[in-house]
From TrEMBL:
<dbReference type="InterPro" id="IPR008507">
    <property type="entry name" value="DUF789"/>
</dbReference>
<dbReference type="Pfam" id="PF05623">
    <property type="entry name" value="DUF789"/>
</dbReference>
<protein>
    <submittedName>
        <fullName>Uncharacterized protein</fullName>
    </submittedName>
</protein>
Length: 236
């Protein structure tokens, strides 16, 4: 799952080829509809010969914002990478507010969550979204694999090509993905590299967390649950 933003530039055509400066507020706005109504993922269930749409709600799992400006924080990577803000969710999934509401709450104290732009940030800035299953249409309670939760990891400083049209979309692809348990055949298309891709994205997430020295609560929970091959506690 990824967010897709409209170009933040509203200037004349003479500036169409300039790289846009995406504001953090633009990123959170891309999650507003999903936060309010959830996002549907279509699935084909062969054993039931039916199509199901599983709906997920995004919540903020973790975030680290490093700025290029000087800061008083003891956490820094070099002279141009200083920790401005970090958050690591510990609440049960059932008790978490949707992503857009959580960001609004945090921004009351840390205004940079809405005012900073990509040009202010170090390339180490990132955030993680927890996607929790909400409901499905039509309802298929017998398929346990539909209850899988996901963590996606995204950079807050997306790469822009040298030529970037004014009306182009900015996409924040997930560089890391972790599942709460083995997704089973429902999430793996036979004859494809889906399982290999999942493994690569999981390794990428683990490597990144090590690089930024961040103990991500949800990541550790998911990995421990899979290692023990046990169901998550109720509410997670």
């Amino acid at each position: 799952m990824q967010s897709c933003l409209g170009s933040s530039s509203s200037r004349d055509k003479a500036e169409e080829v300039k790289k846009p400066h995406i504001g953090l507020k633009d990123i959170w706005s891309a999650y507003e509809e999903w936060s309010n109504y959830a996002v549907g993922v279509p699935l084909s269930l062969k054993h039931t010969r039916s199509n199901v749409t599983q709906y997920y709600v995004p919540t903020l799992s973790a975030i680290q914002i490093f700025t290029n400006k000087s800061g008083s924080s003891s956490r820094s990577f070099g002279t141009d990478c200083h920790l401005y803000f970090q958050y690591n969710e510990t609440m049960r999934f059932d008790d978490r507010p949707p992503l857009i509401l959580k960001v609004d709450e945090l921004a009351k104290k840390h205004r940079g969550l809405n005012s900073l732009t990509s040009s202010d940030l170090s390339h180490r800035s990132w955030f993680s979204v927890a996607w929790s299953p909400l409901y499905q249409i039509p309802e298929v309670r017998t398929v346990k694999a539909l209850s899988v939760s996901f963590l996606t990891y995204h950079s807050l400083t997306p790469f822009f090509p040298e030529i970037f049209p004014q009306d182009a979309k900015v996409v924040l692809p997930a560089f890391g993905v972790v599942t709460s348990k083995h997704p089973g055949k429902v999430w793996i298309m036979p004859g494809t590299s889906d399982q290999e891709n999942l493994n690569i994205h999981e390794e990428s997430a683990a490597s990144w967390l090590g690089e930024v020295m961040f103990r991500h609560n949800d990541f550790e929970l998911f990995m421990a649950e899979k290692a023990n091959d046990l169901p998550l506690p109720s509410g997670w």
